[in-house]
Amino acid sequence: MEYKDYYKILGVSRDADDKAIKRAYRQLARQYHPDKNPGDRKAEETFKEINEANEVLGDADNRSKYDRLGRNYHRYQQMGGNPTDFDYSQWFGGGGGSQGRVNIDLGDLFGGGGFSDFFNTIFGGAAARGAARQQDEMFGQVRSQNMSLDASQTVDITLEEAYRGAARTFNQNGSQFTAKIPAGAKTGTKIRLSGKGNVGSYGTGDLYVIVNVLSHAIFERVGKNLRVDVVVDDVTAALGGKVQVPTLDNNVQLTIPAGTQGGQLFRLKGKGMPHLRDQTKKGDLMARVKIRVPEKLTDAQRSLYQQLADLN
């Protein structure tokens, strides 16, 4: 069985007082709490070790027993003993004041796996049955307080910025920092900046940057696609030809087939908005035809139109 160095886990000296232990525990627990590190298995294991160390060093009876064990264990090592052969039998069971705490099961918190074998063997009792932390109520306060410390700020960006990505500079809590807005962002996209919210007694909340994409004079955004009106003269619409279509990168040429009707849509693949979560992919650009007829005719034009009318 592996010996656990709880002082090393909390990063405190062996003569640290209760305040130093509590301060170290709270700082580490906030850093590695599962609410702050969703899905991070390494952070979960570290959080378990931190709580286990606090169960021992944060309780006078447990700490006293652990210190006696530690002295014997280190003396045994100094005499050349094999750590794996150390006799833990005299330390089985018992335990300190953790049985009187407001506790939860670490296994419940993480879906299995609470205290280590070392802890369960040495301290037994309620701890061996999975009763965990004195500080559970404190973390309920931390979660609710941190939620109230969260801040939000809406930022306006142009469609071009939404297409290419953008950045905004903020001043919060006396410091300046830059938030990156990814390409493909749309109105309502939230960007979480950890630890950039309001400051409170339990720490600092998060800042949520909420994106608002401004309307565009030419393009209409429809999900990941864009829509644009393309003016085609009546002759080109009737006989066919080529027209220039604007995109957010540059103009592209579109072939108009003979007999094109007003309102007809042409799809230009990959000329739309980037996908927010996979920017190697883009939506499409839908070009909608608007047929233009001349407002004023020359005598020659009028004659030709009259001949066309006679043919029809």
Explain what this protein looks like in three dimensions:
With 312 residues, the protein is α+β, with helices and mostly antiparallel strands. It folds into 3 domains: 6-141, DnaJ domain (Helix Hairpins, Orthogonal Bundle), CATH 1.10.287; 150-213, HSP40/DNAj peptide-binding domain (Sandwich), CATH 2.60.260; 220-311, HSP40/DNAj peptide-binding domain (Sandwich). It is built from 11 helices and 13 strands. The strands form 5 sheets. A 4-stranded mixed beta sheet has the order 8-9-13-12. Strands 1-7-4 form a 3-stranded mixed beta sheet. A hairpin with a 2-residue loop joins strand 8 and strand 9. Helix 2 runs antiparallel to helix 3. It is rod-shaped, with a radius of gyration of 34 Å. Residues 95-113 and 125-138 have low confidence and may be disordered.
